[in-house]
Amino acid sequence: MYGSVSVDGFVADENDRPGPLFEWLTGGDVPLDESGEIKVSQTSYDYTRPYWDRIGVTIAGRHVFDMTDGWGGEPPGGIAHVVVVTHRPPPEDWDPEAPFHFVDGVEAAVARAQELAGDRIVEVAAGDVGGQVLAAGLVDEVRMDVVPVVFGSGKRYFGSVDAQHLLEDPDVVIQGDRVLHLRFQVRR
Predict the structure, then answer these.
(1) CA separation (Å) from 184 to 68, 80, 132, 145, 148?
(2) Residues 6 or more apart in contact with residue 116 via CB below 8 angstroms
(3) pLDDT, tens digit (0-9, with 9 covering 90-100), for 118-170
């Protein structure tokens, strides 16, 4: 499970705007991808790029898919496939050849993502779907890019998780520019 988050645990405000949560992705001088638009500090690059290179599939919810207009049919960040958790069919004008897979339910989404990922990892986007995957016991690791901002309210990193879940002590704590990278293993 992965995402940028405010120090009070939000991935967006009440209106789905991430505000300054992604400023760390544009405030550096080291290009993180081929677009040249995403630039981070060297420290953030050294942590983030190897992780991004290992991602084969991202699992996201239909809400995120709709908000991003399906990333124009191209998975973000060089990822090979996106599995969209939804109860609805793809948009009517959706290209069936686009590497997006529409699946009903988080268990089915994880199974499909694991098939598609091969020897690469499956990333689950933070938010409601990420919280559902965590609650189902299907998350091994939680990665957070904690940004020094307080939202006060909004969309929670873990969605509406209704039970306690224990994480191990952080095994990675890296300070970048305007971001703190954290990684936790989920306690089993």
Answers:
(1) 28, 25, 18, 12, 19
(2) 56, 57, 80, 81, 83, 101
(3) 999 999 999 999 999 999 999 999 999 999 999 999 999 999 888 899 999 99
- Distance (Å, whole) CA 74 – CA 180: 29
Alpha-carbon distances of 68 from 74, 128, 139, rounded to whole Å: 11, 16, 24
Helix (H, G, I), strand (E, B) or coil at 130: helix
| Neighbouring residues of 127: CB distance < 8 A, sequence distance ≥ 6 | 3, 11, 61, 63, 64, 155, 156, 157, 159
Q: Which residues have a Cβ under 8 Å from the Cβ of 36 and sit 6 or more positions away?
A: none
Q: For 53-60, what is the mean pLDDT?
A: 97
Exposed, middle or buried, 33 (CB in 10 Å: 0-12/13-18/19+)? Answer: middle
Superfamily of 2-185 according to CATH: Dihydrofolate Reductase, subunit A (3.40.430.10)
d(CA 167, CA 169): 7
